[in-house]
Amino acid sequence: MGNCFGKESSRSDNFATPGRVVGSAPPQPAPRAAVPKIGGQGRSLGGGPALDTTDARAAAAKAAEERAARAGQPRGKLGQALAKEKQQTRVGTLGEASRDERRRKDIDEAAEARNYN
Fold first, then answer.
1. In Å, how far from its chain's centre is CA 103?
2. pTM, two decimal places
3. Three-class SS of residue 68?
4. Do residues 50 and 44 make contact, with C-beta atoms less than 8 angstroms apart?
5. What's the CA gap between 74 and 66, in Å, rounded?
6. Predicted confidence (pLDDT) per residue in 40-91, tens digit
7. Which long-range CB contacts under 8 A does 57-63 form with residues at least 24 apart?
């Protein structure tokens, strides 16, 4: 038995190539080309002017502050609705739910009175 995804092999494949003599070293791989040395100052992506990397911590802090300032602003219709819901307190939310339930109850009572007559 073997792997269901493996290739089929016959017993003769194990002995298809000549073997080695006991005590001999395995064949050595071919030598590889040397890896070229890269030197000099690295460049940032984007093709813009080189940035001063000595003040990277301050630049990261400034970018984080800008993102935080933009995150607080609601975007579009859904963002404004979400901001409005976040501003509601627990009492306000319960009061709104209570008013909605009273309106439903009044509508149901009016419909029942109309159907009775």
1. 44
2. 0.31
3. helix
4. yes
5. 15
6. 776 667 665 555 656 888 889 999 998 888 877 777 888 888 888 888 888 8
7. none
